[in-house]
């Protein structure tokens, strides 16, 4: 039996922001040379997006979110959690120690309607609004939101983003669920990658900074992931293949989504065909729904 592996979004996290990633591609390259079928995917931003409760030590999660909230309300346990967050340790993935400060966390999704005005604000800003210490702000935010809060956290360095993107065995993903600027989804505050992951690379890393060729970028968007996922008939423009086609101007395509205002569609995509059927014509939706669930072969 032949097994394949995909390293999901390999990244290096460092309080200093200095590059620590090079060892990871080296290990993957070594495995590939030895015959192991391993590759990776990535998105090209210096911030991730995660449940904010992940910043709390693992033991405090025992029993689920309800128990976590109880512990955050208990003065003795709250003090213990604070001490562990403030102490560098290799025993757990302490994200508080991996960022430069509370300004590195931006509140994204919340479920408590009273907290909606905080979406898009950093923990440093919320701490000033609430007149609280940043760690107390974290604890009280989780309590108020029943541990649901999602945050963008700036933990990667730009050199690492580029290094990961340039590896020939790394494909590109947006690592996001469905998004829309309209309706109920438009009330959410996602990572900008939900809207701009691919145009962001085409504009910043291909057109402006020349870190990738256009051909390399398109391969990472299409042929490489189709190959890894064994989607027969997909990923390349070739007679007999399914006509999944996009038409854009590489000089003008660009993303608009930002961490402050993520619910913005990118610009510059003129035509999109799915299974040969136009779904975008001259930048406008056609309302056609030709997509289908894909089988792996």
Question: What does this protein look like?
Answer:
With about 300 residues, the protein is an alpha+beta fold. It has a domain at about 55-140. The chain has 9 helices and 10 strands. The protein has helices spanning about 25-35, 65-75, 75-85, 125-130, 135-145, 160-165, 195-210, 215-220, 225-230, and strands at about 5-10, 35-40, 45-50, 105, 150-155, 170, 245-250, 270-275, 275-280, 285. Strand 9 (about 275-280) and strand 10 form a beta hairpin.
What is the element layout, followed by pairings?
Elements: E1 4-8, H1 23-33, E2 37-42, E3 47-51, H2 65-73, H3 75-86, E4 105-107, H4 123-130, H5 134-144, E5 150-154, H6 158-166, E6 170-172, H7 193-208, H8 214-221, H9 223-229, E7 245-248, E8 269-274, E9 277-281, E10 284-285
Parallel strand pairs: 1-2, 2-6
Antiparallel strand pairs: 3-5, 4-5, 7-8, 8-9, 9-10
């Amino acid at each position: 039996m032949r097994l394949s592996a995909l390293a999901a979004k390999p990244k290096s996290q460092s309080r200093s922001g200095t590059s620590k990633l090079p060892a990871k591609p080296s290990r993957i390259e070594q495995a590939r040379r030895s015959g192991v079928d391993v590759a990776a995917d990535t998105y090209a931003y210096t911030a991730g997006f995660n449940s904010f409760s992940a910043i709390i030590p693992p033991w405090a999660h025992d029993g689920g979110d309800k128990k976590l909230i109880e512990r955050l309300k208990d003065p003795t346990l709250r003090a213990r959690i604070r001490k562990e967050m403030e102490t560098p340790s290799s025993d757990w993935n302490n994200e508080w120690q991996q960022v430069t400060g509370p300004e590195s966390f931006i509140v994204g999704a919340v479920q408590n309607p009273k907290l909606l005005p905080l979406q898009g604000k950093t923990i440093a800003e919320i701490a000033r609004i609430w007149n609280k210490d940043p760690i107390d702000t974290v604890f009280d935010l989780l309590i108020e939101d029943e541990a649901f809060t999602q945050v963008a956290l700036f933990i990667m360095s730009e050199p690492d983003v580029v290094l990961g993107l340039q590896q020939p065995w790394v494909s590109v993903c947006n690592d996001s669920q469905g998004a829309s600027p309209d309706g109920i989804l438009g009330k959410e505050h996602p990572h900008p990658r939900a809207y701009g992951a691919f145009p962001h690379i085409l504009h910043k890393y291909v057109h402006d900074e020349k870190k990738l060729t256009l051909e390399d970028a398109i391969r990472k968007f299409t042929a490489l992931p189709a190959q890894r996922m064994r989607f027969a008939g997909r990923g390349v423009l070739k007679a007999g293949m399914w006509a999944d086609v996009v038409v854009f101007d590489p000089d003008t395509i660009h993303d608009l989504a930002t961490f402050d205002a993520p619910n913005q569609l990118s610009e510059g995509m003129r035509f999109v065909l799915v299974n040969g059927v136009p779904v975008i014509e001259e930048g406008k939706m056609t309302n056609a729904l030709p997509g289908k669930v894909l089988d792996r072969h």
